[in-house]
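Aim 2 progress update. The chain analyzed this quarter is reproduced below.
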Amino acid sequence: MSYGHILVAVDFEEDNQQVIDRAVKLAKPLNADLSLVHVNEVINEMGFTGLMDLDVANLSSHSSIDELSARLNDLAKSIDYKVKHKYVVNGDIKHSLEGPVQEAGIDLIICGHHHHFWSRLSPTVGGLVNTSPVDLLIVALIE
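Predicted structure tokens:
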């Protein structure tokens, strides 16, 4: 299987480097395009899935789209491979990647998965497995 455009989901944690390294290692021999995405799941992390008064939610303490974009640009500059696109999207990862995948012609998504208690309560990757329109590579981030 050959891939032409790889999308790497990042969350700005230290273990992102493992996911990025895996993506670059795969992209280089294929001469594939590489793009980054950060999914801002602030409301999902609060554990609420219904209608919410955002004034009450106190979202002001969370990073703005501009801050997240700046962090993503800095991360892209640190990668030893050309990054074609950088996306910051809001919402649940299960549905937020559809736009970038279609827009950029992505054919592989790479993301990390933590093996700890909280990931079992909110299995982000599990939801992506059931909704992704393209292939997935899930990098195990064992602590």
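Helices lie at 16-30, 42-45, 65-77, 93-96, 98-104, 117-121, 124-131. The radius of gyration is 15 Å. These observations will guide the mutagenesis experiments scheduled for the next reporting period.
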